[in-house]
Structure formats: structure tokens, C-alpha cells
């Protein structure tokens, strides 16, 4: 089966910023992404748990997308403009996908 | 004074307060007791719908008068003005940064709808009636304080890297709580007493029980917040969390006298002015002032001021409004 190179970008960001981030990603040419709930964690801003939040808006979400390598820089520029002042983690890993035309 | 203390003591052993205390103690003791997120969200929707509907039905029964307009103007002015007082007071009492002070001040200009719901419950239990449109006053007081805080930061040169755009204003003005509260208020006002009678078995009879469970969850959240933020708040900042509600409620009383509210309405305006937001404002602050620390403003609002208002504030404001406005 033919495999194609891709980049998997995972951005963990405050839930209040979710719509701004996904809008910026679409603007950068991302055609698909997945938003996942985050249960809790710990980092430079301290420990937190979803159970300890008054509303979902004060928690975190993970936005995951797979893109063609040539689109990575545009995505990172757009995403970083949203993430930079806020709590969040951006990571990129090499991936392989079937059906390259979907990315 | 003795009457006020007796009323406060009586309020402390009500089911809603004891439910909150149970949640608080359970969280501080690190119990694994939790209310599922979807259940808490469902209860929140129920309480907002019920309180909005009953307020609207009350307006339909008693009609609209000039006091309504005056009350809404006073409510908006309080929400705009209180952050400036809070910011100045924090400057005198603490060494917080400009952005932290402005963020905290925004919370104290806005309102806690759960505190408002608890106050209406206490008034009902004591047989004190209030103007139905106080629900609209609560909705009016949600947002202006955020604008005041942003203005304070801009003027003080706080230099936040946050985003203040049309999307933020839309999120503030059309946040789910405001839409539900105002929407159910209008449904209640349109359908009136007949509409209320139709759904009373759902929104009147179970109300107190749902409020107990919701406050149990609030106690759990407040307890976890206090536990996780131990050491973040200094004594002067904690003192601010109890002093600011007293200043806010005093101004609320003045506003109630200006608007000509009843003792019940005055108690609710005092409660609204004394309460601090922990839903709408924190979300707006994360977007607009990301440098402000949630461990300060959220812990202060939810861990200090909310329990203070619930246990001491509401009975105090009720007794004072009854003595001054009712007298």
C-alpha cells in the first residue's frame, strides 16, 4: 500500500481560544483537523484538572491536524500568532498517511 | 444587629449552604466525590431557565414601570463603576501587577448568577417579594465591567498581548448564560402566569433540590481551587475579597434607593453588586488579558467572595435592605 509523508501538528491550547485557532488554521489552508478534550495536566502554569474548572471554557483542548509538509510553515505562522501570548504547547511529528489527496 | 446575626445564623443551616459546605469540605479533604461535567452543565441550564422564566412571569403579572428603566441604568452604571473602585482598592491593599489588578477588578464589577439565584431562594424562603426584572438587571451587569478593566489596562499602559476584537465582544455579549437568562425572561414575560402554571411542576417544585446539588458542585470546585492555589493569595488580597463585596453592596443599596426598588429588589441589587463573576469574566480575561493569573482572580472570586456572600453576605444584605428600604 502506498504511503505518503505528512506532518502531524498537535496544539494544546486554552479552550477559550479554540475557535480563534481553528479559524486561523483554516485561513492557513488546513482542510481538516480534530479537536480533543483534555482531562488535565501540569506545566509551567501549574497543575490543573478538568474536574476543577467551573466551565469548559476555562480548561484546555488539543487540536490535531495532519498536513502536507509544504503547508507546515504557513500553519505554524498562523497558529503561533494565536498561541504565543497564551498557555499552550505546539508539537510536530513526522507521519505517514494513506490517501494523500485528503491532506 | 442581633436580628442580623440571628438571620445569618439561620441561613447557615439551610440545605443550600450546607450542600456547598459539604462540597467544600470534600474537596479540601481530597475526596474523590465529583459531579459529572454534563450533569453540572444541565443543572446550570435548568437554574438559569427557571430563574429567567419566573422573573419574566413576575413582570407580566405586575407590569412595567419607570423603576425598571431606572434599575437597568443603575445596574449598568454599577457594573461600569465598580472595577475602578476595586482597582484602586487593590492598589492600596496589595502588590499585584496592573494587569492582575484590572482582571480582579473586572470580576468584581460583573456578577455571579449563582449567588443571585441563591439570594432569590433565600428571599423566597423568608416570604420577601422582589421585582421580576431583577433578572434583566443581572444580565445588564455581566459585561460592562470587562470594558472598564480593558480601559484601565490601556490607560495604565499595562501592555497586554491579548486579543480584543469583534469576536471577543460577541462572546461577551452573547455568552450562553446571558442568552438563556434573557431568552427565558422574555418567554416568561410573554406567557405570563398561565405559562408559569403550565411548567411550574418542572421549574418551581424541584428548584431548591437542584440548587442544593449545584451548590454541592460549586463547593467542590471552590475547594479544589483553594487547594491548588494555596499560597498564591496573600492576606491583604484575601481581605479584599471580603471587603469589596461590602463596598459593592453599599453602592448597590444606594442605587436601589435611587431607583425606588422594594426591599427584596434592593437585597438582590446589593447581592449583584457584591458578587464576583467566575464564568463570563474569566473566559474573557483569558482572551483579552492572558498575562493575568487565574490563580489570583478565580481563587479570589470563587474561593473567597462566593462563600463569603453565600454564608454572611446574602443574609446581611437582606437584613439591611429590609431595615433601610422596608423601614
Could you give a short description of this structure?
Chain A is α+β, with helices and mostly antiparallel strands and 103 residues long. Helix content of chain A is 21%, strand content 40%.
Describe the structure.
The complex is a heterodimer of chains A (103) and B (327). Helix content of chain A is 21%, strand content 40%. Chain A has 103 residues and is of the alpha+beta class. Chain B has 327 residues and is an all-alpha fold. Chain B has one domain: Na+/H+ antiporter like fold, CATH 1.20.1530. Chain B contains 15 helices and no strands. The model of chain B has no long low-confidence stretch (mean pLDDT 89). The A-B interface holds A 14, 16-17, 19-20, 46-58, 84-87 and B 34, 37, 41, 160-163, 167, 218, 221, 224-225, 228, 278-279, 282-283, 286-287, 290-291, 294-295, 298, 302.
Task: Give descriptors for this structure.
heterodimer, A: 103 residues, alpha+beta, Alpha-Beta Plaits, four-stranded antiparallel beta sheet, two-stranded antiparallel ribbon, 2 helices, 21% helix, B: 327 residues, mainly alpha, Na+/H+ antiporter like fold, 15 helices, 79% helix, 0% strand, globular
CATH class of chain B: Mainly Alpha
Secondary-structure element order of chain B, N to C: HHHHHHHHHHHHHHH
Task: Report the sheet-strand fraction of chain B.
Answer: under 5%
Segments of chain A where pLDDT lies below 50 for 5+ residues? none
* CATH architecture grouping of chain A: 2-Layer Sandwich
| SS element count, helices of chain A | 2
Total domains of chain A: 1
* Strands of chain B, count: 0
CATH class of chain A equals Alpha Beta
CATH topology of chain A: Alpha-Beta Plaits
CATH architecture of chain B: Up-down Bundle
Average pLDDT across residues of chain B?
A: 89
Question: Alpha-carbon distance between the termini of chain B?
Answer: 15 Å
Please trace the helix and strand order of chain A, writing H or E for each element: EHEEEEHE
The assembly state of the depicted protein chains is heterodimer
Backbone CA Rg of chain B: 19 Å
**Low-confidence runs of chain B:** none
Amino acid at each position: 500500500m502506498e504511503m505518503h509523508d505528512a506532518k502531524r501538528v498537535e496544539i494544546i491550547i486554552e479552550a477559550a481560544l479554540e475557535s480563534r485557532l481553528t479559524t486561523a488554521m483554516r485561513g492557513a489552508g488546513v482542510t481538516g483537523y480534530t479537536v480533543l478534550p483534555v482531562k488535565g495536566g501540569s506545566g509551567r502554569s501549574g497543575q490543573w484538572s478538568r474536574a476543577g474548572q467551573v466551565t469548559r471554557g476555562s480548561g484546555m483542548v488539543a487540536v490535531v491536524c495532519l498536513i502536507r509538509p509544504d503547508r507546515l510553515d504557513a500553519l505554524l505562522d498562523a497558529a503561533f500568532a494565536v498561541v504565543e501570548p497564551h498557555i499552550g504547547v505546539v508539537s510536530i511529528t513526522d507521519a505517514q498517511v494513506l490517501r494523500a489527496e485528503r491532506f | 444587629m442581633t436580628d442580623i446575626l440571628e438571620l445569618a445564623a439561620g441561613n447557615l443551616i439551610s440545605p443550600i449552604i450546607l450542600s456547598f459546605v459539604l462540597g467544600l469540605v470534600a474537596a479540601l479533604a481530597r475526596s474523590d466525590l465529583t459531579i459529572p461535567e454534563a450533569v453540572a452543565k444541565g443543572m446550570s441550564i435548568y437554574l438559569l431557565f427557571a430563574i429567567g422564566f419566573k422573573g419574566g412571569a413576575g413582570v407580566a403579572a405586575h407590569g412595567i414601570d419607570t423603576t425598571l428603566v431606572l434599575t437597568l441604568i443603575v445596574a449598568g452604571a454599577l457594573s461600569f463603576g465598580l472595577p475602578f473602585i476595586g482597582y484602586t482598592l487593590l492598589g492600596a491593599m496589595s502588590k499585584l501587577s496592573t494587569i492582575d489588578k484590572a482582571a480582579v477588578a473586572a470580576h468584581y464589577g460583573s456578577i455571579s448568577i449563582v449567588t443571585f439565584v441563591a439570594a432569590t431562594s433565600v428571599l423566597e424562603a423568608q416570604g420577601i417579594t422582589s421585582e421580576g426584572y431583577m433578572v434583566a438587571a443581572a444580565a445588564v451587569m455581566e459585561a460592562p465591567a470587562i470594558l472598564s478593566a480593558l480601559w484601565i489596562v490601556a490607560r495604565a499602559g499595562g501592555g497586554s498581548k491579548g486579543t480584543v476584537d469583534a469576536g471577543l465582544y460577541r462572546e461577551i455579549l452573547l455568552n450562553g448564560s446571558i442568552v438563556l437568562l434573557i431568552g427565558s425572561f422574555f418567554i416568561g414575560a410573554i406567557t405570563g402566569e398561565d405559562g408559569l402554571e403550565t411548567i411550574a411542576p418542572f421549574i418551581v417544585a424541584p428548584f431548591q433540590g437542584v440548587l442544593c446539588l449545584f451548590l454541592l458542585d460549586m463547593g467542590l470546585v471552590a475547594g479544589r481551587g483553594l487547594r491548588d492555589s494555596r499560597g498564591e493569595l496573600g492576606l491583604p488580597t484575601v481581605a479584599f475579597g471580603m471587603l469589596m463585596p461590602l463596598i459593592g453592596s453599599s453602592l448597590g443599596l444606594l442605587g436601589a434607593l435611587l431607583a425606588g426598588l422594594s426591599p427584596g429588589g434592593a437585597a438582590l441589587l446589593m447581592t449583584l453588586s457584591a458578587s464576583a463573576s467566575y464564568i463570563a469574566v474569566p473566559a474573557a480575561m483569558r482572551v483579552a488579558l492572558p498575562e493575568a493569573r487565574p490563580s489570583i482572580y478565580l481563587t479570589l472570586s470563587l474561593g473567597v467572595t462566593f462563600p463569603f456572600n453565600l454564608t454572611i453576605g446574602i443574609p446581611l444584605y437582606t437584613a439591611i435592605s429590609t431595615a433601610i428600604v422596608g423601614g
